[in-house]
Amino acid sequence: MTHSDGGADAPAPEEVPSPRINPHIPHPARIYDYLLGGKDHFASDRKAAEALIEVSPGTREGVRAHRAFLGRAVGYLAAEAGITQFLDIGTGIPTQDNTHTIAQKVVPEARVAYVDNDPIVLVHGRALLTGDPAGLTDMIEADLRQPEKILADPAVRRVIDFTRPVAVILAGVMHFITDEEDPYGLVEQLKVAVPSGSHLLLSHITLDFADQVRREDFTKPYDNSTAPMVPRTYDETLRFFEGWDLVEPGLVEVVTWRPDLDEYQEEIPGGHAWAYGGLAVKP
After folding, report:
1. Residue 86 lies in a domain
2. Alpha-carbon span 86 to 111, nearest angstrom
């Protein structure tokens, strides 16, 4: 299998079953891939995604707005903040404008460690190794719920020098961590492990802009998936950045975080992307 925006000969997931991939259980990474217009998903993922669209007709456009925010934030980190190391956790299935692609356009020697726990993501992640030869890119199998293993992983250590500033990227992943799994404690372990000058890039699904939607209706498509959906409020999302200094404009809806005037802005049915995004620096 190849990168999800690879050639037309790339086989569909149904053609390459793996004993570690259950096509009957929806997975957030594959649902996201479907919403982005990718081709690496199963019927169960498509069904869950369509259920989301039924609840929120702007889901597809919101997901693309979410992705565009990630691109702008990574561009800022590489071009303005001087960051050359990126630890991207819960990266999802490779698509256009991945972290290493954006960062290495600005800083060819940028180093990116992608971390994910989904086998289908890891299969496609091998294509990520085709970054700029001046830099270094690797895909590591690990779970956000075990940050100590991520931080100690030899492959991560080969890519990331934790004595120098690092951008920790948690884009669209924390809303798959339940309160019982201690989301704030997990993020805190990552924050403690990096030095002053490091950045935290985080985005999170919210229902703050959707008073008309019942939480249980929105989260239901994920009830039978590999990870439930946990929308959080502004204050709950802001808490992830505690102790660090937010970069202007702070924690805002993803479409309003340093919008690129040259970037095509899709009209989102309902008017909102239903996601907060922010970037903060460690003092």
Report:
1. yes
2. 6
Residue 255 and residue 273 in contact, taking contact as beta carbons nearer than 8 Å: yes
**Cα dist. 67→190, 223, 247, 278 in Å?**
22, 24, 19, 13
What pLDDT score was predicted for residue 225? Answer: 57
Asked if the structure places residue 8 within a domain, the reply is no
Tokens representing residue 81 in the block:
């903040």
Range 134-145 burial, b when 16+ CB lie within 10 A, else e: ebbbbbbebebb
pLDDT along the chain (283 residues), means of 10: 32 46 76 77 84 74 84 96 97 77 94 88 67 84 95 96 98 93 98 98 91 65 66 97 98 92 62 87 98
Q: Is 203 exposed, middle or buried (0-12, 13-18, 19+ CB in 10 A)?
A: buried
Contact (CB, 8 A) for 236 and 25: no
Q: How far apart are CA 193 and CA 62, in angstroms?
A: 32
Residue 5 included in any domain: no
Q: How far apart are CA 87 and CA 258, in angstroms?
A: 22
Asked if the structure places residue 127 within a domain, the reply is yes
CA angle 94, 91, 170 (to 5 degrees): 150
Q: For residue 75, what pLDDT is reported?
A: 96
Q: Which domain holds residue 267?
A: 13-281
Residues 6+ apart with CB under 8 A from 147: 186, 189, 190, 193
From the list 96, 210, 103, 113, the residue with the least C-alpha distance to 161 is 113
CATH number at residue 235: 3.40.50.150
204 half-sphere exposure, CB direction, 13 A CA radius: 29
Cβ-contact 115, 156 below 8 angstroms: yes
Q: Is the dihedral of CA 168, 220, 68, 16 positive or negative?
A: positive
Strands 199-205 and 275-281: antiparallel
